[in-house]
Amino acid sequence: MTARSGRALRRKIFSHSMTVLSGAAVVVVMIPLFWIIYECVLLGGSHLTLNYFTQGTPTACSTISCNAGGGLGLIQGSAVVVGLATLYAVPVGIAAAVFAVEYGGERGLARALSMSADVLSGVPSIVVGVFVYVLVLYFDRSLVFSVFSGSLALGAIMLPIVMRTTEEALRTVPHSVREAALALGMARWKISLRIVFISALPGVLTGVLLSIARAVGEAAPLLILDNTNLHFISLNYPSESMSLSIYLWALTPYKNWTNLAWETALVLLIFVLVLSLASRLVLSRLSRKWKA
Amino acid sequence: MTRGNPFPPRSLRPIHRAPKWGDRIFFGLTLLGALGLASVIIAMVVSLVHGALPAFYQINFDSFLFGHIWNPDGCLPPPIGFGPCSYGALPFIVGTLVTSAIALLIAIPLALGAAIFLTQHAPLWMREPVAQIIQLLAAVPSVVYGFWALIVLVPIMATDVNPVLAQNLGWTGLFGGPHNTGLDVLTASLVLSIMTIPTITAISRDAMEAVPRSQKEAAISLGATPWEVTRRAVVPYSRSGIIAGIVLGLGRALGETMAVTMTIGNRDAIPTSLFSQGQTIASLFANEFTEAISPLEIPALIEMALLLLGICLAINIGARLVLARLQLGGRTTTE
Questions:
Q1: Structural domain harbouring A181
Q2: Cβ contact, residue pair A219, B258, below 8 Å
Q3: ipTM score here?
Q4: Which helix (H) or strand (E) element contains residue B86?
Q5: If you average pLDDT over residues A112-138, what whole number do you get?
Q6: Minimal Cβ distance to A95: which of B10, B33, B136
Q7: Do B41 and B116 lie in a common domain?
Q8: Which of A14, A56, B7, B294 qualifies as a FRET site for A274, CA 20 to 30 Å off?
Q9: What is the pTM of this model?
């Protein structure tokens, strides 16, 4: 009797301690996120002023009365390279998603397409960079190290994100809506565009923003293709950018550059976290909209 | 995900009318998009094979894959060249595998623990918000991880963690050698583990949530404690999903560049302990790609990229097939 209840007690205690351990795992897992946010706010927030958005990159300087400068040049460089990438990735990604949802059927083709997007998003970004290097080298040697080839790599990284979020948003629109429109005699392409796409538009837009956030933070392909400390000149030359400047200035002895790197990290972090939170909210709201 | 449409659109298409031009054009345009997506993957494989050809032809494959010494500069004529001419990729292959393996060793218990807590024990109101917060870890740019690790984590490892490990676990041989820089395999693996945790947590959480209630209730009715329910009912049922999540986490760790480059110490040699500096394939690209001067160096690097691409494609296709069969992973795919 006592032996049995002793064993039951041991099992119970073991079970409780495993519950506590798994709860502790949740806390431990979240620590790095808040630690990173804390350090970025601490080290970047103390210098971050509106000047960040109005002044260009300062010249290197390590005395106390340095020109702090700002991140305008970095923002400009990132905006050009990511903007160009958006131009390639968004139309292709949206078209591929519409094709998968409207013509791909329930399985087979649609699944193959979304799986290839998933596989593409699993390719390391540095490998995408090497791929674009080889590709551009083959066609035009002079363009290899440029904003243009950097944008190609970022486009290939954004494409699967745009495609998958668009696909998910389009799939939240129930079939009954399409069927209702078909019954009214509407052409299929008009249904796809004016009804399905428009209803899913918030989801599509946040998907686009999410992919932009991802591309702005991406530094590895730019390290190979678009690596410099200089201002943006034209698409044929490399240009400075936000993500890469963090890497290049991480260990620089120049105090104003280090501060700028922390400010950039903070701005990037806020941008990325806000966008990815917003996109989750929009997507979950979209899928709830039709259930009511 | 919407599934099981009882009226497939095809059957609703008016039978007697010829398809309209608007429909055809729209179909063609979206088809172009789909082909564009597929062609990126094909172009990637073709380009990398093309770029690696000179290395295939001119470097002995065995000495490439199993060579211990990476010294492309030695292949140049004497004034520039120095040392033996050798394109051994083994240090980077080992570095990549070792850092990823240690990262998984750290990440798996934490990620699975978190997934178990969030699906079995946590109060309902906190499950979704906490899961979303953990997912935010996947959104942090890897260069920000690297910067944080370099400035914050590396000094802590060098002064507080590494000496303790060396003192207490030095006898294992894993923690030998100088450890005062903090830039080592261990730090890189630690950062990698943080970056793989959201992937593993999200997918195993999906898998554990898909376990039917009846399975758990059966275990409870037999008198199982909460842990026994998890251990005997939930984990066995969701095992393949959990493994797919771990494999996808591995895929992320293998190709991670910025954070590893900033923390691993960048030394072209096989790491001899967790405190030795090393180099992964990805960090080698970051360090050498734009500074390659010997003629076969770029092709050799591309050959390594092809190797990495092959591994990552295999990992992703395999894991995605498993997840598709389980009908999981719909919401965890974008990051």
A1: 72-289
A2: yes
A3: 0.91
A4: strand B86-87
A5: 91
A6: B33
A7: no
A8: A56
A9: 0.89
